[in-house]
Amino acid sequence: MQTAHHSALAAKHAVLDRQIAAEAQRPLPDATAIAALKKQKLQIKQEIEQLQ
């Protein structure tokens, strides 16, 4: 069963995924920004896994 909290986390995870892809496509991607986004994405993924 998917709760509202789970749905919100999944949405944030998807947004971060798009932000990472957009940054990676820039002519001069900011590696620090990508690393920070990936860290946030991993934290959300871990929280989602704990809910299951």
Brief descriptors of the model:
83% helix, 52 residues, mainly alpha, elongated
Low-confidence segments, ≥5 residues, pLDDT <50?
A: none
> What is the number of strand segments?
0
How is the biggest beta sheet arranged? none
Rg from Cα: 13 Å
Instruction: List SSEs in N-to-C order.
Output: HH
Shape, principal axes of CA atoms: elongated
Q: Give the class from helix and strand content and strand pairing.
A: mainly alpha
Q: Fraction of residues in helices? A: over 70%
Distance between the termini: 9 Å
Supply the number of helical segments: 2
Arithmetic mean of pLDDT: 94
* Strand coverage percent: under 5%
Provide an overview of this structure.
By secondary structure, this protein is an all-alpha fold. The chain is 83% helix and 0% strand. The protein has two helices and no strands. The chain has helices spanning 4-25, 31-51. The radius of gyration is 13 Å and the shape is elongated. The termini are close together. The model has no long low-confidence stretch (mean pLDDT 94).
